[in-house]
């Protein structure tokens, strides 16, 4: 670092014995002895100009070296970031200094930025359920090997619990037939599909296959279904807690992937041998012990006490003193509610569509058909998000109002299905409606004071407005005006029915709702009068079309898929039906180009 000197100066410098380097010719004084190392050198003059002998003389080597400050660039991000964000510039500068053998601490402001780039502690994250600490909750998973929905849930429950910060999953087998008997289910101890109509069985089976494909579960069906699995469930109870999850997966796959008869003792021993040959006979013998049978009965009774009526079901457990357990959730598609319970969130997050890698040549759908009825609270929840979904995916939304009562009568379903579901299931469905409404950010009035609603007039109004939208040319100003009127009327009628709890079967309530939607007094009367005359034909046509498409309830979405084998668009062979407002993320995946499996197994589900 010393400045350049002339050759004469370098020779003079070499001739003078010293312990430090030459500072400069202007600052050099007379040769003296260093007061620290006692060597003769040319010491630097004092800053005050005092060169007397009383002033101690120190050479450059003896004097402590003053660290040179390094100017650091600004950090890339000043806010707190996660562990995956790269380190800031100050952190990299400190690492380079350490690698050269000279550890130089950066300035105070740079050190503060370096601390800000470090990840927060696990238990300090916002909305966390405790991570893997001593007070982390765990999820209790109730299942029966004979239930295909529990099979699909077994592929998702542990990943969902881990993502929510739970400590683990406790696998609790239950005897599903005994649960049905205790809650007095309408199907008795048999499978729930025996009380479903043909259209609903087909819709539920297709939905189950789609959800299994999304979860990666190898669902192939079982020609012997339903099979008595009581002894297999007892084997799970007899296994150590650390092995129950693995044994349950082996039995699930043997039943639903391989189609084995777990009610046969010889078949069961072969499955247990594949699990662990050294313990297969012991597990089968332990399944006949009274304490193992009592453990299975205790799991089933605890599920009924919690308000359960079927599987799969989940409860978030907090076993520490003062900990409060979460609510019971039922179904393979409610894991986002379980995650919200783990994190103790008031408003759960909605299920999101997957990030798909599609073929560049895949044709995306152009239209989305929605069959709806104001009488259904599920249609109300779907209507709040259908328009935003169509706009986000850039497709044309065709709303087709139907009479859900006429649809139920034609396919052989009870007029009010929730009234025939049993007390436990009806109470749960009301609570789940409130949870979905909170997740979508809309108010809902359940139980409704006027339920079931007669919505013939309201549906005729919407059917007449929807017919005007479809008759107009796509993209024109006339279509945009007609679509705005339909959207405003639909929103006003749904809000009157399910946000305020009014009886939309009364003509005065319909007129008042249209006036609030911006139609005006005369305009609302005119729309209602036209609907009484012309709306009936459009409503009957939409209902017959929904029945022919295979709908079993509302809301039902129809998405036209990629053409296969020369099939024309918008035909049953090239369309996908999605039933339920809780499948909006599946509808979005279909609209983005994903196609469900074309070859579906024919075995019973």
TrEMBL record:
GO-annotated biological processes: glutathione metabolic process
An MF annotation (GO) of this entry: glutathione transferase activity
SUPFAM superfamilies reported for this sequence: Thioredoxin-like
Listed Gene3D superfamilies: Glutaredoxin
Basic residues bias locations: 57-114
Pfam family, one: DSBA
GO CC list: mitochondrion; peroxisome
Residue ranges of domain DSBA-like thioredoxin in the record: 139-339, 367-591
Domain of life of the source: Eukaryota
UniProt region (Disordered), positions on chain: 45-116
Protein name per UniProt: DSBA-like thioredoxin domain-containing protein
Species this chain originates from: Prasinoderma coloniale
